[in-house]
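User: Sequence recovery, please. Input:
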């Protein structure tokens, strides 16, 4: 038995009163794929940032700043 996604469904609120709500339509495969890709990118970025903080967390800030400044100077300086 299939139902249309825009047809109202009778449900009940916490106080037992009937409530008509619109049923959410099922996601299409393309939407599902995009959602999974976005979740993978989000968690990969979160893992990368967390691992970076754990790896760089034990170094003094002045050493990090000096290293970043040296790398930036090498990047900006003209090549011979």
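Assistant: Recovered sequence (80 residues):
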């Amino acid at each position: 038995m299939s139902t249309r996604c825009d047809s109202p469904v009778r449900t009940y609120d916490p106080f037992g009163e009937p409530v008509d709500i619109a049923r959410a339509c099922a996601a299409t495969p393309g939407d599902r794929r995009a959602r999974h890709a976005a979740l993978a990118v989000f968690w990969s970025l979160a893992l990368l940032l967390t691992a970076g903080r754990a790896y760089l967390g034990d170094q003094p800030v002045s050493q990090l700043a000096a290293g970043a400044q040296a790398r930036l100077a090498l990047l900006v300086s003209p090549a011979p």
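DSSP finds two helices and two strands in the chain.
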